[in-house]
């Protein structure tokens, strides 16, 4: 009996070494059970991080006009926050979704910049993870009891916070939502929302791509094709990005006297401003949506577009689909930044180490990032304005285009998570 | 010769070839070598999962945890490489070992505790999904890309020379694994008892076989192959996303059933399963190329599976009538 089991294990081990491919099997795998090792390690940083972040800004954020970056005033020009100063040394409570990812660390960085400029202070709180909804609600309620001059909120769950918003309103504390809006907030509780305008973010990608492709389109003797891969046709932010890109691209191409047709996924074809006529169009915008949100299916959709001979540009409207473009290009080798050499221009969205590496190497012409940094920055300004007793309007932040040359800029780099 | 034509796997192979020709005629992009390479890139992990799941299916059970499990193992391996700078070989071993552990757990739940396979593996499906996400702190995990030296493992499946030349080296290890597993299923006790358990577990037990151990072994093999699949998955995709993987098991299970594994157990072959994967991959990769919207792929796949199971049921009925 034992022999049989031994034989089974042996054959199993043989197969394993085959795939492992090199004779290093002598090295025994880690002694600890596989599940336990990472779990233990994970606990530590998750707890440390918020504590460190909370302590630092509250102490450091002393009024420091002199420290203000000379460029920072540019960020306020043309915004409703131009010329805003704090009437008092306010203290705000900022509730982020967690400190887990670099995304939220960037938001805190933005808050710090604004607080330093205005001479206000803030305390940032966040649960261990974005799914700890109850923890966040407790933190908001604790903030309300502490009576800050205002509360900045990025809600983990937009329905769970409704009671707290009512309580804040009753206590007379203005709330500014950032990153995520709360659609059903009690009237008058949320004074402003600072969140990404996805339509504008999609349009940014179209503008940058068109600038690169303008000559190719103008000189083309036959119809050319621009592809777009969207993760789905159901989530509002993806719809807005996808349509933002299509409508802006259409507008730019038409302005230069060429005609456009939109083909592919029915939702996007029917929802765009002008779907045109495929038979006569100079430029065809082809939209693909995978059946499921997996890199694999995004890749298949991307390569069915990218392998066409007339394709000149392609846009992946979120991290998964942008990575799908890259996986497809791994086999096709068409993407690049040199239009004159016949490279297809690829544009992505968001960050992550794979997309960042592709932008750096020029495989992707560039990508659009959301700016948690600017959201944190404007949220503090909006709170200050509200604490001053002025009315504040919603402020949408745009998407920020980055490429190999600009990705290390001070305003871009903190937004690019790994 | 006549017998050959009655074999389901042979018919499926013919249909797969016909399907390929149709797609190739309809789309000139589909005809390209790069499309074949892409099809293979995304076939390796399905093949590995499908070979593994063939064993529980033959016992009359199923393993629903292979899809989310595969993602979980790939996440953990990649996490160790990125955050603890483990050598890639070690991370690969960890992924495979993790798969084996979950496989043995599934087997124990089904064979010793007597849980229905559907429920037991649905539970481990949920567990691996949550666990994978938790272990990596909810962040997407990239394995080393094929542009850096640590990315050597990509070459197991695809050798890239320069920008344009790709050689599907993955066919060699996969072919070796297929031959080994054909031998295991047909000529070793593990394989034959797997078939015997699927035909009649009680009779097998009464004939003096320790069915508990062999029943566990079937699930252990399945877990091991989900672990191997996680390496192939990491090689094919740029990053492994936590929370994904649900649904991937259906491609593998579907492939095995299309390839002639009986849904009632007791019948099945490794070569049939491989042909099933070939068929499903052609369909999955081909449909977008002929401009059919993605959701149609799922509908068509579902209809084909109903067909395959029906063929099986009708066959069984005919046999019973004789």
What's this entry about, in short?
The complex is a heterodimer of chains A (about 425) and B (about 325). Chain A is an alpha/beta fold.
Characterise this structure:
The complex is a heterodimer of chains A (418) and B (322). Helix content of chain A is 44%, strand content 15%. Chain A contains 12 helices and 13 strands. Chain A has helices at 2-20, 36-60, 102-118, 133-145, 162-170, 198-219, 236-255, 266-271, 295-306, 319-332, 353-361, 372-387, and strands spanning 91-95, 121-125, 150-153, 175-178, 190-196, 224-229, 260-264, 283-288, 311-316, 345-349, 366-369, 395-397, 400-402. In chain A, the strands form 2 sheets. In chain A, strands 7-8-6-9-10-11-13 form a 7-stranded mixed beta sheet, sandwiched between helices. In chain A, strands 2-1-3-4-5-12 form a 6-stranded parallel beta sheet, with helices on both faces. In chain A, strand 7 (260-264), helix 8 (266-271) and strand 8 (283-288) form a beta-alpha-beta unit. The longest helix of chain A is centred in the N-terminal third of the chain and has 25 residues, at 36-60. Chain B contains 14 helices and 2 strands, in the order H-H-H-H-H-H-H-H-E-E-H-H-H-H-H-H. Chain B has a domain at 32-245. In chain B, strand 1 and strand 2 (165-167) form a beta hairpin. In chain B, helix 4 (44-58) packs across helix 12, helix 5 packs parallel to helix 7 and helix 6 (88-112) packs antiparallel against helix 11. In chain B, strands 1-2 form a two-stranded antiparallel ribbon. Chain B starts with a helix and ends with a helix. The chains are: A alpha/beta (418), B mainly alpha (322). At the A-B interface, helix 1, helix 2, helix 9, helix 10 and helix 11 of A face helix 3, helix 5, helix 6, helix 7 and helix 9 of B.
């Amino acid at each position: 009996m034992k022999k049989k089991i031994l034989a089974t294990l042996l054959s199993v081990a043989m197969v394993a070494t085959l795939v492992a491919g090199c004779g290093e099997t002598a090295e025994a795998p880690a002694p600890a059970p596989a599940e336990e090792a990472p779990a233990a390690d994970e606990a530590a940083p998750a707890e440390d991080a918020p504590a460190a972040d909370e302590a630092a800004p509250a102490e450091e954020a002393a009024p420091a006009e002199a420290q203000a970056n000379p460029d920072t005033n540019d960020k306020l020009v043309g915004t409703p926050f131009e010329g805003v100063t704090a009437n008092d040394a306010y203290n705000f409570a900022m509730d982020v979704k967690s400190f887990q990812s670099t995304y939220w660390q960037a938001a805190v960085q933005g808050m710090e910049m604004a607080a330093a400029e205005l001479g206000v202070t803030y305390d940032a709180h966040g649960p261990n993870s974005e799914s700890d909804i109850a923890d966040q609600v407790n933190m908001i309620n604790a903030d309300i009891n502490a009576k800050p001059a205002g509360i900045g909120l990025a809600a983990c769950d937009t329905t769970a916070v409704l009671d707290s918003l009512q309580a804040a309103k009753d206590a007379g504390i203005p709330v500014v939502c950032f990153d995520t809006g709360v659609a059903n907030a009690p009237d008058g509780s949320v004074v402003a929302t600072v969140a990404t305008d996805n339509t504008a973010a999609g349009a940014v990608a179209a503008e940058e791509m068109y600038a690169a492709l303008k000559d190719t389109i103008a000189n083309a003797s036959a119809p050319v094709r621009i592809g777009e891969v969207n993760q789905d046709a159901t989530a509002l932010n993806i719809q807005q990005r996808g349509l933002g890109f299509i409508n802006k691209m259409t507008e730019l191409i038409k302005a230069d006297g060429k005609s456009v047709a939109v083909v592919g996924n029915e939702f996007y074809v029917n929802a765009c401003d002008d779907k045109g006529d495929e038979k006569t169009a100079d430029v065809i915008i082809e939209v693909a949506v995978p059946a499921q949100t997996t890199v694999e299916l995004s890749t298949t959709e991307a390569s069915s577009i990218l392998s066409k001979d007339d394709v000149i540009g392609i846009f992946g409207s979120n991290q998964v689909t942008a990575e799908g473009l890259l996986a497809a290009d791994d086999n096709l080798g068409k993407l690049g930044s040199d239009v004159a050499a016949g490279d297809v221009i690829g544009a992505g969205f968001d960050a992550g180490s794979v997309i960042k590496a592709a932008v750096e190497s020029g495989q992707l012409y560039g990508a659009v990032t959301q700016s948690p940094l600017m959201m944190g920055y404007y949220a503090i300004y909006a709170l200050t304005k509200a604490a001053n007793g002025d009315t504040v309007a919603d402020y949408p932040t745009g998407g920020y285009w980055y490429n190999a040359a600009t990705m290390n800029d001070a305003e871009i780099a903190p937004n690019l998570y790994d | 010769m006549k017998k050959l034509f009655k074999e389901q796997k042979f018919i499926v192979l013919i249909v797969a070839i016909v399907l390929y020709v149709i797609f190739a005629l309809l789309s000139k992009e589909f005809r390209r070598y790069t499309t074949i390479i892409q099809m293979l890139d995304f076939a390796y992990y399905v093949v590995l999962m499908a070979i593994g799941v063939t064993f529980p299916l033959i016992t009359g059970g199923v393993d629903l945890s292979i899809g989310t499990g595969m993602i979980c193992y790939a996440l953990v391996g990649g996490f160790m490489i990125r955050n603890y700078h483990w050598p890639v070989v070690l991370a690969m071993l960890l992924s495979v070992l993790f798969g084996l552990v979950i496989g043995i757990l599934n087997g124990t739940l089904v064979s010793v505790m007597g849980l229905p396979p559907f429920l037991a593996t649905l539970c481990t499906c949920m567990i691996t999904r949550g666990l994978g996400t938790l272990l990596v702190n909810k962040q997407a995990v990239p394995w080393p890309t094929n542009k850096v030296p640590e990315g050597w493992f990509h070459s197991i499946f695809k050798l890239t020379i320069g920008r344009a030349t790709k050689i599907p080296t993955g066919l060699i290890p996969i072919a070796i694994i297929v031959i080994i597993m054909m031998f295991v299923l047909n000529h070793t006790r593990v394989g034959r008892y797997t078939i015997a358990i699927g035909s009649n577990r009680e009779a097998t037990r009464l004939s003096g076989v320790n069915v508990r151990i062999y029943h566990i072994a079937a699930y252990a093999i399945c877990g091991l192959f989900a672990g191997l699949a996680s390496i192939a998955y990491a090689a094919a995709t740029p990053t492994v996303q936590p929370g994904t993987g649900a649904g991937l098991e259906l491609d593998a299970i579907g492939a095995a059933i299309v390839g002639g594994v009986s849904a009632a157990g007791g019948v099945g072959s490794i070569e049939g399963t491989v042909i099933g994967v070939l068929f499903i991959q052609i369909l999955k990769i081909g449909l977008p190329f002929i401009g059919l919207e993605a959701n149609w792929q799922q509908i068509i796949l579902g209809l084909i599976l109903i067909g395959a199971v029906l063929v099986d049921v009708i066959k069984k009925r005919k046999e019973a009538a004789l």
